[in-house]
């Protein structure tokens, strides 16, 4: 079998560095010529010999030139050829280039190709290219070049001569695999006087680096060895393969060996199998996939149902590889010892023996080398070490080594790829299944009871929390293998009685969480899982009493009503800090650049400044007469700039706590302020349509930059040369800060006036402008060209604030929809949605080190999020998009939902697994509906097109076979489309499943025949958008509600309006109407605090179901006896007994304070279970239970966006839970039954708290904490005295 896998046409040769002299040594190809040409030049001879050796060793079957993004802010299609980028670096003044990429992205392949091209173009006197495998060196942090040259047989004299007189291009591969954390350029003193003259190209896996990774690569300025020289540093991020690159690769792959498949066969399968095309955008996975694909699909007829995971690709590839090598050995002449070993292997099971060999080697590498992948073996030194078991010349070992996925360079061995090492290590925990068409085996993990000691269990050897790739392999095993999942649960049980099982149990529950297992109502009493990653986990009503939870990560976990009595909780992480409670709405916040202070501006005009170590209030600034709208610190952190609705701008002196300057030229409210990067100038914008520039020292007005519309966003570029302002006419205006002249106007003529720009921000590198609009859209603009590069719907309300993280990796946005969202700055994809605010979020700010993100809003709180914790715990269950719409199947066995990643998915409630229910990229956020006969799925596209999908899989599969290589043909082959002129807001199926009723923005209700896909009738009468439609059980009528305030009933037999149940009234807006299945009643909600029940025949109100807040949505159970109503952040449950002839409804239960804005409630057919879909993108199923004649609810499962929830959690007598975390949990509704009713308890909402309580530092000593608690009430009383004294002092100053 040929080794795949990367090859290409030649790229243009890179420009040599430094300039290369003309060639003067002919005939360098032959060794004899080399000896003659360099008989007086040993260095030249050695280099030419090295060149020949390296050129001869280069072997690439297929190489596809990779593409790369210019930086972390770039999106996927803003790419350039990586070779072109590197050529520019080599020709320029830069000294270090970092190439980032995921595992398998092609970093090493590119490095070898780069070295090959540089050697091909090498001439004597030019820069010497050296490909350096970092994991193979012992001391790369000090002797990088020296150690490598020694391995190439250069003498010490030659090395010193090269150091003094030659230049090098060092291509350093595997920074992550060598587990380095140092700056190689700095520690090796590169380019310093008398040191090595180099250009450094370093590759590293993105997952390996922390948030401040630039410090590990940016060189220091010449002569100033402690100042980073960012101008000498360049970065590139390898982009996933494009569709064209995948096709090009397949085309080159097919001719490498005799195959029965042609290019079309491979491409058809890659496209048809759900999710596979996205998976193989990784080059290494594409390699594995093409080798394994024929065996994966063998015997499968319905490819659309096939779910292929990453671990399955590795399984198939490994078995395919071993099968080919077994056949090769069968036809190969072996020695006597080799033949005997081969016979033994065949008797023992060839493939199983080879898999066991590689499993054992992977385990040994992690045990003896802590995962460092390169094994250096010399027979003389290692004959008695663990290495001899794998690399000795013994015939069986030699034979196994030769057929395994290992590569060799001299005495150094390694797996062909880091992910292969991780795969085989995962196989030590759960073996791969038997891959053949007659076997359904999923592998048989060893029983914990069969082990002599828990210490022998592979999950006991090391914590896997820092090995996400291994956890992903094992999570996918657990999803497919019920026995393995059961074994993981058994480890949790064992930890209750075995203190030594804690590490295995922590790994087990980490894997289960990643596999989508939910622990609602689980008995976890006494488990020992210290260090586990439970982020995004579901633990509703779980029992953790007396558990050891030391160091556990609960970020974004659901622990509502969980019980933690007597649990050890030292070092537990929850992903956020306790929120600050202010005396009024908070409309501005800002971290100081040095991270020591944090300021918040209130609607009263007061500015509170906090010290961030202990989060105690340090001072109060008073002077503004109205709401603070914007805050900004000076670069030195010594001054604070504030803007207010009182039309003034103030400059505050932080060390003295006084106001230095008041700027009063604006004639309308000030909407935003900013300091220039130099700190010498400040800018302000206002509703008076002006941008004003001020001298920060004198307060004099420097310039007035006018405009034609109100201005609400403001930012300086990082170099201070450009100012941008967002305007309510939808444009972004740029200004030259030095000449004070206008520059580009972005978005001119594109957006209507009602979609104004609310906020703007520059990227840290100054290459991109980020803007947020009133419609909830986020936009990314290229600075140099003014081109809109990326635009996406980020929020359901206006975007009030946008900001880049200081390291440029993340974008944060805040919105009127009460959410804060973190986005990947490269791709614009959602990373995390942060919920908890109870009103609009107005402002956000990153701390200087990106460790924390603060958000504030109209709920009088400031939320503090731990960035690393909320980014932890990637979801390996498939789609991570937010849930936009849900619908149950008629039999209740599953539901379908639309996700923000463009997919319609099927969720199986029996195993918590999601799979595609329709082809990918077919959903854009509209309504989803299941037909009552279960044969059709209906969704909307572009808001006004209704599409019908047939769910009969055989027909679907046949259609899919007709769809070969063009994905776009899907929309013309599969869906049937029904067109409306305006947006469709509501749809319903008739009970018989034939008719679809749809209501739209034009006030029309249309009736469609779902079988013939023809319009049957149009009902007109509403004068405003139709928001809800419903059929009665008989299917003879339609009831519709509208924003015109009316409810109309339409007769389907005569196609006429039968009657108007509720006359138009512009003071109300009908949100939802529903025909009750078993009663002659129609329920409706108009956004007010009630659901009205109307008698169908008489047209009179039967009953008012009164709530404490406005009803946003409700759902009626299929039995007609239950109504679940969404009311603010709660769900109210109403019941009517079937024996009650008066049809009187009573409230029976309330689920309180655990929801965001509720969009929809959907009941499971013939069951007391319902799903609540919220605006935060979550969908949670709740089940009614009758306990001792009392109705209660329990959480059954959850999908979509996750959020931290702790209401009702019991934390009585916990051990080691820090006071900061205690306060956080109590704020979120947790209960400490041992606490007195002091100011430390937070049972109510923030508006019930009279004072803002300072947050204590987590590292306070016990004595300090005790003193703080005793002085709490006194502090609150003293606070008013201090405030009064400060106010008097201010009057005296004036």
UniProtKB/TrEMBL annotation:
Domain annotation NACHT: ranges: 96-255
SUPFAM superfamilies documented for this protein: P-loop containing nucleoside triphosphate hydrolases, Pentapeptide repeat-like, WD40 repeat-like
UniProt entry keywords in alphabetical sequence: Repeat, WD repeat
Keyword Repeat: yes
Biased composition (Pro residues): 11-24
WD repeats: 621-653, 663-704, 704-739, 757-791, 792-833, 834-868, 876-917, 977-1018, 1019-1054
UniProt entry tagged with the keyword Repeat: yes
Comp. bias (Acidic residues): 1262-1294
Protein name: WD40 repeat-like protein
Organism encoding this protein: Linnemannia elongata AG-77
């Amino acid at each position: 079998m040929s080794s795949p896998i990367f090859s290409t046409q030649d790229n243009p040769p890179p420009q040599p560095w430094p300039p290369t002299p003309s060639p003067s040594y002919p005939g360098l190809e032959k060794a004899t010529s080399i000896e003659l040409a360099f008989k007086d030049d040993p260095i030249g001879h050695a280099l030419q010999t090295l060149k020949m050796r390296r050129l001869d060793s280069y072997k690439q079957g297929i190489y596809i030139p990779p593409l790369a993004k210019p930086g972390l802010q770039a999106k996927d299609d803003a790419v350039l050829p990586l070779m072109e980028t590197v050529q520019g670096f080599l020709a320029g003044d830069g000294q270090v280039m970092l190439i980032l990429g995921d595992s398998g992205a092609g970093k090493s392949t590119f490095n070898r190709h780069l070295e090959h091209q540089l050697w091909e173009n090498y001439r004597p006197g030019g820069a010497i290219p050296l490909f350096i495998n970092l994991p193979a060196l012992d001391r790369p942090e000090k002797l990088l070049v020296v150690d490598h040259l020694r391995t190439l047989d250069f003498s010490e004299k030659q090395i010193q001569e090269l150091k003094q007189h030659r230049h090098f291009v060092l291509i350093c591969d595997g920074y992550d695999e060598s587990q380095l954390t140092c700056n190689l350029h700095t520690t090796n003193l590169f380019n310093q006087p008398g040191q090595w003259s180099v250009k450094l190209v370093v590759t590293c896996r993105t997952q390996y680096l922390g948030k401040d990774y630039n410090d590990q690569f940016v060189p220091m300025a010449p002569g100033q060895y402690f100042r980073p020289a960012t101008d000498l540093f360049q970065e590139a991020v390898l982009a996933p393969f494009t569709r064209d690159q995948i096709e090009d690769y397949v085309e080159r792959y097919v001719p490498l060996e005799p195959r029965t498949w042609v290019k079309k066969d491979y491409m058809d399968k890659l496209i048809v199998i759900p999710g596979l095309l996205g998976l193989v955008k990784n080059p290494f996975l594409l390699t594995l996939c093409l080798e394994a694909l024929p065996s994966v699909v063998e015997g499968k007829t319905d490819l659309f149902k096939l779910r292929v995971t990453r671990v399955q690709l590795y399984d198939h590839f490994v078995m395919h590889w071993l099968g080919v090598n077994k056949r090769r050995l069968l036809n190969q002449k072996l020695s006597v010892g080799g033949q005997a070993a081969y016979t033994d292997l065949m008797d023992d099971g060839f493939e199983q023996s080879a898999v066991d060999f590689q499993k054992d080697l992977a385990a040994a590498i992690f045990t003896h080398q802590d995962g460092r992948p390169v094994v250096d073996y010399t027979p003389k030194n290692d004959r008695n070490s663990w290495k001899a078991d794998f690399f000795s010349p013994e015939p069986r070992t030699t034979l196994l080594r030769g057929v395994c996925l290992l590569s060799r360079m001299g005495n150094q061995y390694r797996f062909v790829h880091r992910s292969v090492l991780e795969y085989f290590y995962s196989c030590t925990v759960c073996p791969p299944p038997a891959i053949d068409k007659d076997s359904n085996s999923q592998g048989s993990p060893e029983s914990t009871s069969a082990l002599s000691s828990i210490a022998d269990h592979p999950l006991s050897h090391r914590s896997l929390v820092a090995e996400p790739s291994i956890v992903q392999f094992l999570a996918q095993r657990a999803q497919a293998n019920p026995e393995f999942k059961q074994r993981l649960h058994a480890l949790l049980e064992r930890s209750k009685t075995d203190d030594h099982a804690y590490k295995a149990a922590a790994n087990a529950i980490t894997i289960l969480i990643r596999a989508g297992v939910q622990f609602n109502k689980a008995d976890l009493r006494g488990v020992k899982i210290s260090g586990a990653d439970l982020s995004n986990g579901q633990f509703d009503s779980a029992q953790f009493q007396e558990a050891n939870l030391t160091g556990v990560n609960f970020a974004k976990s659901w622990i509502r009503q969980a019980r933690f009595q007597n649990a050890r909780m030292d070092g537990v992480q929850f992903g956020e800090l306790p929120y600050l409670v202010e005396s009024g709405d908070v409309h501005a916040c800002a971290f100081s650049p040095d991270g020591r202070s944090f300021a918040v501006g209130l609607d009263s005009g007061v500015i509170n400044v906090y010290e961030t170590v202990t989060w105690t209030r340090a001072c109060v600034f008073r002077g503004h007469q109205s709401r603070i709208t914007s805050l900004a610190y000076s670069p030195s952190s010594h001054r604070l700039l504030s803007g207010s609705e009182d039309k003034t701008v103030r400059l505050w002196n932080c060390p003295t706590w006084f106001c230095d300057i008041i700027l009063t030229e604006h004639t309308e409210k000030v909407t935003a302020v900013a300091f220039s990067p130099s700190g010498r100038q400040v800018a302000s914008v206002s509703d008076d349509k002006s941008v004003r520039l001020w001298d920060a020292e004198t307060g004099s007005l420097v310039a007035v930059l006018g405009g034609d519309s109100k201005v609400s966003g403001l930012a300086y570029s990082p170099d201070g040369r450009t100012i941008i302002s967002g305007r309510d006419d939808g444009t972004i205006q740029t200004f030259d800060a030095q000449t004070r002249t206008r520059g580009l106007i972005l978005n001119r003529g594109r957006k209507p006036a009602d979609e104004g720009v609310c906020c703007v921000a520059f990227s840290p590198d100054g290459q991109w402008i980020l803007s947020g609009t009133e419609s909830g859209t986020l936009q990314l603009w290229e600075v140099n060209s003014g081109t809109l590069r990326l635009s996406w719907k980020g929020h359901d309300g206006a975007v009030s604030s946008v900001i880049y993280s200081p390291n440029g990796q993340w974008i944060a946005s805040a919105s009127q929809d009460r959410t804060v969202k973190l986005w990947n700055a490269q791709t614009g994809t959602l990373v995390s949605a942060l919920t908890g605010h109870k009103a609009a979020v107005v402002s956000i700010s990153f701390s200087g080190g990106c460790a924390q993100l603060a958000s504030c809003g109209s709920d009088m709180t400031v939320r503090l999020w731990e960035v690393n914790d909320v980014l932890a715990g990637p979801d390996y269950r498939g789609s991570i998009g937010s849930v936009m719409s849900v619908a149950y199947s008629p039999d209740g066995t599953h539901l379908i939902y639309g996700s923000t990643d463009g997919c319609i998915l099927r969720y199986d409630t029996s195993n918590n697994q999601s799979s595609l229910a329709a082809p990918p990229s077919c959903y854009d956020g509209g309504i989803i509906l299941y037909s009552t006969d279960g044969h059709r799925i209906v969704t909307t596209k572009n808001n006004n097109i209704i599409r019908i999908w047939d769910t009969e899989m055989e027909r679907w599969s046949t259609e899919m076979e007709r769809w070969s290589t063009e994905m776009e043909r899907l929309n013309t082959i599969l869906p049937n489309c029904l067109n409306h002129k305006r947006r469709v807001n509501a749809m319903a199926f008739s009970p018989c499943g034939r008719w679809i009723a749809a209501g739209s923005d034009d006030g029309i209700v249309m009736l469609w025949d779902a079988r013939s896909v023809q319009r049957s009738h149009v009902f007109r009468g509403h004068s405003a958008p139709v928001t809800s439609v419903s059929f009665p059980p008989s299917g003879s009528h339609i009831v519709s509600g509208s924003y015109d305030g009316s409810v109309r009933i339409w007769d389907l037999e005569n196609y006429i309006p039968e009657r108007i149940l509720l006359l138009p009234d512009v003071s109300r807006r009908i949100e939802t109407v529903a025909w009750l299945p078993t009663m002659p009643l129609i329920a409706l909600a108009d956004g007010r605090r009630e659901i009205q029940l109307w008698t169908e025949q008489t047209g009179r109100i039967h009953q008012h179901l009164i709530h404490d807040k406005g009803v946003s949505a409700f759902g009626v159970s299929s039995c007609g006896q239950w109504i679940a109503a969404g009311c603010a952040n709660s769900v109210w449950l109403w019941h009517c007994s079937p024996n009650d002839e008066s049809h009187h409804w009573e409230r029976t239960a309330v689920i309180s304070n655990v929801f965001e804005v509720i969009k929809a409630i959907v009941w499971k057919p013939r069951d007391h279970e319902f799903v609540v879909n919220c605006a935060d993108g979550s969908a949670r199923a709740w089940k009614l239970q009758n306990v001792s004649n009392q109705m209660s609810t329990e959480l059954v499962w959850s999908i979509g966006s996750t959020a931290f929830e702790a209401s009702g959690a019991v934390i009585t007598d916990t051990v080691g839970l820090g006071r900061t975390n205690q306060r956080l949990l109590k704020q979120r509704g947790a209960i400490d039954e041992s606490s007195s009713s002091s100011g430390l308890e937070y049972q109510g909402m923030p508006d019930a708290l009279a004072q803002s309580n300072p947050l204590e530092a987590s590292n306070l000593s016990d004595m300090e904490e005790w003193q703080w608690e005793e002085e709490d009430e006194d502090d609150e009383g003293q606070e008013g005295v201090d405030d009064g004294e400060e106010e008097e002092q201010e009057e005296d100053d004036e």
